Amino acid sequence: MADELKRRDFLRASAAAALAGPAVNSARGANGKINIGWIGVGTRGNAGIGWLHDAAPDQVRLTAVCDTYQGYIARAKDRVQTVWGNQPDTYLDYHDLLAQPSVDAVFIMTPEHLHHDMAIAALRAGKHVYVEKPLAHTIEEGWDIIRAWKQSGKVCQVGTQNRSSSLYKKARAMVQQGMIGDCHYVRAFWYRNSAENNPAWRYAIPADTNPSNTDWNRFLGNAPKRPFDKHRYFQWRLYWDYSGGISTDLLVHQTDIVNFMLNKTVPLSCMASGGIYRWTHPDDDRDTPDTFSAIYEYADRFHLNYSCYFGNDHYGYGEQLCGNEGTIEVLNRKDLYFAPELLNGKASEQVKARAVVHLNGPRDFGESDGAINHFRNFINAILGKEEVIAPPTVGQQAAISGHMATLSFKNSKKIVWNESAENYHFV
Ligand SMILES: NC(=O)c1ccc[n+]([C@@H]2O[C@H](COP(=O)([O-])OP(=O)(O)OC[C@H]3O[C@@H](n4cnc5c(N)ncnc54)[C@H](O)[C@@H]3O)[C@@H](O)[C@H]2O)c1
Q1: Using CA atoms, how far apart are residues 392 and 43, in angstroms rounded to an integer?
Q2: C-alpha dihedral over 42, 46, 49, 50, to 10 degrees?
Q3: Cα(226)–Cα(246) distance, rounded to whole angstroms?
Q4: Which atom, in ligand 1's list, is nearest to the CA of 159?
Q5: Which residues pair with 187 in a beta bridge?
Q6: Which of 264, 293, 366, 382 has most Cβ atoms within 10 angstroms of its Cβ?
Q7: What is the CATH number of domain 2-163+375-392?
Q8: Which of 66, 72, 79, 109 has the most ligand 1 atoms within 8 A of CB, as the residue to mutate?
Q9: Which residues pair with 295 in a beta bridge?
């Protein structure tokens, strides 16, 4: 008990330091580890248990795990034991995990429609929060989280981890150095493909899944009630009730990182179109498109052309910053290329002097993506040593781009963002 009180005093001091600003070094007390609770240990959560150990093995302990599928709770217990060397407490209801005073911070890695209630409950319970992208399922829910975060005084990081990737930080620095000149146009894309018997986003459903080991009502949360459906539970990205599909699952990462590289925020407008063109089997009841394009206009004469298709992966993933003096492209989140615009030899000597660049994340930075850095940044922010790079205000900017695309698509209309009123209308 005395140790626990000492630990909490230390963490209170760290939190106060965090509020005072970054770069405040807190003395670490005995037993002064941050206790982490993990809500949602599916695909991302299970991987994250290992990444957190890579990020901050000495600063944190993973003491609690919550999930509504028993198979994943069992898997997480094994994984925590293997990676962290302890047995976590386990919970079916996240409120019970949040009621534990010993839990200082939570990672929320559940389907999109649950982020709102979980993040707000966690902040109100006095926990620091790492919540996966998209911040929330709607624009309005995102504002609720921002309000709860501001009232809480807690650290909150949104899982747009590209911001913590050294490759993207390098790209941003190159833009700031003027290497591509003015940039009015970006092309971003994410292309995927799979065999006919492996439809996009029809992720494997554990063989033992049934209504008694899978808590359907807790999965639904505030989503419309309907009978148990294991496809909806494990393949939630395919249904509007739980996901914005491509817009909020994939596109948000890319609009977010374009914002980061070019210092942009929310676009002025979006026009989106697409449909279900590739995965049309009569038994496939998906709602969300497999073919999607979104055209954004931003202030200052800036245009973002986004496309995503689940029927051909030849071009993979990328963001291409097309400046009038050079191009930066980040491909597959692993390779950064720069090439000057030579204009058939007519470019200025200054532009011609810019050498081509190729950087590779694993080779040059020892990183496969930004996730581990992003976790470390969250923990360091709790310790008062840094500020989070993706607070809810930034996560909301990324999410708004995604929601604008979904709303434009569903309404077959161009959507316009009104920054001062923080709302939208269609034209
Ligand atoms: N940042 C990234 O690059 C990245 C990559 C993948 C996924 N994600 C995000 O991570 C989140 C989870 O995605 P995923 O692919 O792991 O999905 P998933 O379906 O594999 O995992 C979701 C988990 O949440 C659990 N769950 C459902 N309802 C719950 C409840 N009420 N309480 C507790 N647990 C509940 C499920 O049982 C499952 O284990 C999503 O927000 C997704 O967008 C982010």
Answers
A1: 23
A2: -160
A3: 24
A4: 1
A5: 305, 320
A6: 382
A7: 3.40.50.720
A8: 109
A9: 271, 305
Q: Which of 188, 197, 216 is nearest to 331 (CA)?
A: 188
What is the pLDDT, as a whole number, of residue 32? 84
Query: Which of the listed residues 44, 210, 251 should we mutate to test ligand 1's pocket, taking the one with most ligand atoms within 8 A of CB?
Result: 44
Would the CB of 256 count as within 6 Å of ligand 1? no
| DSSP code string of 172-218 | HHHHHTTTT--EEEEEEEEE----TTS-TT-----TT--TTTB-HHH
CA distance 275 to 287: 9
Provide CATH 3.30.360.10 ranges for the chain: 167-368+395-426
Asked whether 374 and 212 are in contact (CB, 8 A), the reply is no
pLDDT at 126 over 60: yes
User: Which residue intervals of the chain bear CATH 3.40.50.720?
Assistant: 2-163+375-392
With beta carbons less than 8 A apart as the criterion, state whether 288 and 171 touch: no
pTM of the model: 0.94
Could you report the per-residue pLDDT of 32-45, keeping only the tens digit for each? 899 999 999 999 99
| pLDDT (mean) for 297-307 | 97
Nearest CA to ligand 1 atom 28: 219
**Cα–Cα distance measured from residue 351 to residue 366, given in angstroms and rounded to the nearest whole number:** 30
Rounded distance from Cα 42 to ligand 1 centre (Å): 5
Helix or strand run (H / E) with residue 40: none
Continuous H helices in 383-424: 392-411
